[in-house]
Amino acid sequence: MNVHRSYPMEVSEEGIRRVQPLAQSGLSRVPPQYIQPLHTRPVFHTRTEPRNIPLIDLSFFDPTRRASTLESIASACRDWGAFHVTNHGVPLSLLGAIRRTGRAFFTDCPMSEKLRYACSTTASEGYGSKMLATSDQQQDDAQVLDWRDYFDHHTLPLSRRNPDRWPEFPPDYRDTVARYSDEMKILAQKLLALISESLGLRASCIEDAVGEFYQNITISFYPPCPEPDLTLGLQSHSDIGAITLLIQDDVEGLQVLKSGDGGVDKWVTVEPLSDAVLVLLADQTEIITNGKYRSCEHRAITNPDRARLSVATFHDPAKTVKISPVSELIDESSPAKYRDVVYGDYVLSWYTKGPEGKRNIDALVLDS
Ligand SMILES: O=C(O)CCC(=O)C(=O)O
Ligand SMILES: [Fe+2]
């Protein structure tokens, strides 16, 4: 059966299936390409033992609080690779504005208008949904699609920023994304400095290793899904750059993988906190810190009732930058654990092999 043709309504001109019209078509079962194999399906657990990721208040003024904040950052980075920050300096009205404008684009813009911004390759800017990577039907049948549409913006360096390629609706969309980009850059710098200091490094150490930020902002929209136990909004992955700053609306869905006692990993749902920003360490920070801090594996689950929105701001090195563990963290008793990698090669391998879990960074681990 040609499954592509059996759901004609939601396939756009360039052949990419958008999830939102599919969800709105009132189907009671998801098409087969969205069904996860048994081992990656979300297992719904009763929340008898709620566990929250660490919450760190960045408003320290006296030296004693600064020392304990650095200590909290160190343990959050070691144990989770993720933490919430409050009093982060980003105006709360701007967090509200980007959630509002992002949601308005997805819910109030007609599809014909959205498709003016359609992007057709995974790395390009614009309105997208996960695509089948090949034109080979058999191979396509083996792939699983995410229950998600998104808009990706190239925001920094300024030479990559062209707001004409972003939605015109709602009217403050472009200005909001540009202001949000600038604020997130400042916060990412502040956080990389604190993360460096929490390892006893000079404040600029990790930022120096990353170099000028290549920043992308992805607004993800997860429509309600009729079969949440069979699907994922976004498959499990770690982000490939240096540091990701994420906000969500009030609908739960993001989960982080927490390694537990006895080597048992558990998915923990990240509680939506409207004023907080979630920090996710990404793969290049794991390499730079020689594995002292690990990147955070995460995924998004779906729900049957409410659409969910998140805004992820990625800060990556330039493609030409060589990433390696910093010399300050290497000595005889703690040798380099990762081989050097040119960031562009890392990205290429990610797009070739796919994001599943953390297998890309695992390929760089040196034998001890
Ligand atoms: O929607 C979310 O909360 C996660 C988004 C994400 O992980 C990503 O875009 O890389
Ligand atoms: Fe991610």
Automatic annotation (TrEMBL):
Keywords (A to Z) from UniProt: Iron, Metal-binding, Oxidoreductase, Vitamin C
PROSITE patterns: FE2OG_OXY
UniProt keyword annotation of Iron present: yes
Keyword DNA-binding included in the entry's annotation: no
PANTHER family referenced in this protein's UniProt entry, alphabetically: OXOGLUTARATE/IRON-DEPENDENT DIOXYGENASE
Family: Belongs to the iron/ascorbate-dependent oxidoreductase family.
Record's protein name: Fe2OG dioxygenase domain-containing protein
Protein source organism: Vigna angularis var. angularis
Organism placement in taxonomy: Eukaryota, Viridiplantae, Streptophyta, Embryophyta, Tracheophyta
